[in-house]
Each structure stands twice: as C-alpha cells, then as structure tokens.
C-alpha cells in the first residue's frame, strides 16, 4: 500500500484522477520578461503611466504572498482545506502542479469528503464516480470534451457529463438510430444510460458508453446474462440518483437567481434614490408604473425600462464610485424618459378624445336610426372637422358635448355627400351601363347599384370569420343590393394591419390600441377601419346569370331592381338540370327562388350563361310555397331560425354581438340592457334586420309544375 506523503514536496508527480487539466492560472509574480516588455510597449504607446506604475507596485507588494503555504505540514493543510467548499478545492487543483499532486492523491480523500460535507443538501457521490470527478461535474462550468468555459446549464446527471452544444453533436448518440425490434438495440436501450439531453424530447446516450457496453458484451469470457442484469440494476439506481440531483440542482439555481435578483433590486433602489435626489422623482415613478403595465400589456414599451438599463441590471452592489461613473449616462437616460413620457401622455389624451368622439357618434346613431349604409367610426374620426378637435393642444378642454354639438350641426351634410360619393364610386366599378347616369341612391330615381344585375363579390375575407360561415365550402354567395354596401369587409379590418386610409404607421398603432374600435365579439382579432369599397369586385358571371333569370321572369334587366325581384318572388326551373325539358304537368322538377337559382347556377353550373330557366305559373308558385313551409319537417330538420336581427343599441359598439336570432335578441336585451318586454316595441326601435344579411331563403322543393304559356319562358 502506498505511503502517504508528509508534505507537498513528497507527493508523486504521476497522481491523477481523470480530471481534465485546465490552463494554468499564473501568479502575478510569475510574469515573464516578454510580458514585461508588453507593458513597456503599451506605455510607449501613450497609456497612463501612473496606472501601470500602480500595477507594478501591486505586483511587488503581492510577491511572495502565500509562498510559504506549500511548505506547511500536510495535516495543517488538510485542516485548512477541510473548511473550504468543493468548488474551492477544485480551483486549488488548477493553481499549481504541487497542489494538484497533493489534492489528487489518495491520501487527500478526506479533504474532498469534508468539502462535500460542507454542502449538506448535495446528494451523495455516485458509486461509479470519484469524488474529484463528482465535484467537477457538479461545481465546474467547463465542457468535459473540449474544455470550453461557461457551459453551465447543459448538464446531465444521468449521463454524468457536461457538454457544450458543439461537442454534444459529436459525443452523443440518439435513440432514434436504434431499432426496437432488434435484440441488440433493445439491450442498448436497457443497459446504457439514456437521457433527454438539454430538456429535449429525444433520448441520447454517450457514444463512448454505448461502444464500451458493446465491447464488454462481445467478451466471450463474460457471463452475459449476469452482466445485463447488473447493468439494468445499475441503470435504475442511476436514474433515481439523477432525479434527486436534478431537484437539488434546480433548487440551487433558483436560490442563486434569488440572490442575484436581490442584489439587482438593491442596486436599482439605490440608483432610484440617487435619481430622485437629482430631481427625477416623476420620471422614476413613471418608469415603475411602466414596468408594471408591461407585465400585462402588449406590445412592450419602446423605451428601455429602468431595471433593464445596462448600468442598472449589473448584479453588483452600487458604490459611490460606480454612481459617479454612470451618472452622466443616467442623466441622459432620464432626459429620454421625460420626452417619452410627454409623448405618451399626449397619445393617451388623443386616444381619450377619440373614445369621446366615438361615444358621441353612437349617440347620434341611436337618435337617428336608419337602414342606409353609414360611415364607420374610423371614417368619422378621420373627418377633418372631428380630427381638428381631437388634435387641439393638450391645454384645451374637449368633451363629449363638444362632438355632439358638432355632429348635430355638420353631420347631415357630411352624410349626404358620403352616400353620393361612395355609391357612385362603387357603381363606376361595375361594367353594367344601366342606367347611364346614376341618380341619387336615396332619391326618387333608380340608382345603378339597386339593379338586380348589379352583383358584387368580396375578396376581403373578414366575413369568413363569421361563426355561421362554413369554412369547408369554397362557394360564396354573390352580393346584391344593399348587402354589399353593408358588407363587413367595407368597415372592418384586421388588427395590426396596414390601413390604406391611414397616413402613417403611428395612426395605425393608435387605431389598433383604441379599445372602442374592437369588434372581437363578432370577428376575433379585428377592429373597425375607415369605410371603403376597395375589397368589392364586380361579379360579372353572376350578373349574366341574373340577367337571364330576370328575362325569364318577363322583366326588363335595365330597370328591374333587387327589391322588385324580391317582391315578385318567382319560382323557376333550371332547364339545364332537366336536359332542356320544360314543365309539362308530368315531370318532377326542382323549383328555386330567384336568389337560390343564382346560387345554384354559380355553384353547380359554374355560372354558365348558357343555362336557361323557366318561370312556373302563379298557381304553382302558391303550391311551392306551401311545400317549402313543410320541407324542413319532411327532411327531419329543425325549423329555420335565421340570424337576421341586430340590436340597434349596440351599433358600432364594442359589445355588439352581431347578427342574432329573435330568441337571442330577447336574451341579449334581458341580460345586457335590462329589458324583458322587447316584443312590445316595433321593428327598428330596439332591433332591426341586419342590412348586410340577404333575406332568408326557403329550402328547394321538388314538385310537378304545370305547363306554362310560351310567353313565360325563354
């Protein structure tokens, strides 16, 4: 048995325990002549002479410090080292070769045990590791393969290794490369330690451990069954030990983070106190409020928060010298905060004024209910007369009454111009030339948009977010008057999207953040935008189909309006589906309303203009309506309860629930408005038909129409 050395000089030079040797940390007194020349050259390059002289004086004063420590008796050294922490012992092994030899000698085992005992909560050393190796795994921060420093978090207690990202790709073997059907691979999974590296989803093992296991399994002199049994038992023990180590390590990390946070908070409070003494108390209070708001709001503030400032978040206690060094930076930072605060207060005031204007607009709409298409709240906010009131200097008082007076006086003229300009702009997009000269859409004449053949389609996509919209169908019914004027894509847009009516990105941000413009109850992630028919395109195919149907009903497409067709309410037979055969009193045919006929042709016949129609007799129309009323029951469907109603009190409000059934209207008024006798009010007072919604159509029925006169077909 080897004899224990009595002093450091007696320790053998070949004592090692598998610890990776780190670069030598040279003492200041061990600087070589070449390094002195470096300092001399730096002086010649113009560096501070007194600073370098101070460094030289420090080197002279520290020369010989602890120089006699290696000459002390080992029992004295062991007693001293026994009071150190494991990380300190580990660092001592890397200071000098003499210390490394004595601390890695077998006789120094008591030092490692005593040091580890100074961390009472640390789990015991695994049986397959030495105490220095265990200390190196737990308390070091170097990669075990390349020696790269600061590899703190990529640690695995099951694999007993710490690797950097680059070495992990080389030293680890993925379980995905193993076949569970293979007996050999099954043994590897059972007998080699695997772990989810770096908290990932894939199991890895050390490539060296896998190869070592296969090598031992290939030994013909080894009892394989006993070997596999021993390895399986060892793996279970290792996993249990790794779990305890992981819990301990996470607690240590949390404790360390708490200590760092405490130091940071104390430093921040000290800096805040210094700033308050300089007269920045309002700015520091504003930053505290901003930090709290940032936890619950998005997007985060543009300006750097106090606790995130590079000079504040340093985990070091604040000293007077540190404060003197950072004082100019902090004063400049406070100037930026002051300017940012003034700008944010101005933006907040503008937003409050927009909310007041929106509230006054809603009040105006309640006092003047109408079925006409109306400008959106954003259009009103962008109206120059309203905008000038919103952008008045901050010292001017602007209230809701200010906007109410303005609306009562100026809105009638603005609305008349808005209706005419927007209607004519949309009419010019459609290729239909009847009537040639558009007349007032709400006057005595017929406007082009009112014609049945004036059909549009939308490419906006907002309406697809409607809960009643079927996401699985690609067919979208064409839009007739007045539905396309009230279409949601005209006045609603995606939040955080570019608004073509806004002039700057700042305006878009202001509209996005305005809570009164939200329509999340109807369309998630959307808000109101300036009214625009930009997303509406002429549906020429549908227009040609309508022209054919109108002519089949004996009407003039140049003058027949949508309202006239709804009042006529004809029933038609598709001669394309009957292969050209007309009703003769014997043939069973599908009978369509004129709107359903348009949808049928667009969906089934791809909008072909070659499809012809025949209007059935008025007598058969009466019978068809009777059958349509019974059709849901015949198909075992519940009665139709279309969502065609809207609450007049919630128009343009954030609480607007959108289209509702009549039962939902009653429930809405009971819970939201506190009214339970809605039936006593007439349509248009508390509720109205949704103008963007087409009239509900009955189910298509099959019947045997009689033969009609030649004048009724085409």
From TrEMBL:
InterPro entries: F-box-like_dom_sf (IPR036047), F-box_dom (IPR001810). Residues 1-50 are annotated as: Disordered. Signal peptide: none annotated. Residues 66-115 form the F-box domain. Residues 27-40 have a biased composition (Basic and acidic residues). This is F-box domain-containing protein. It comes from Hypsizygus marmoreus (White beech mushroom).
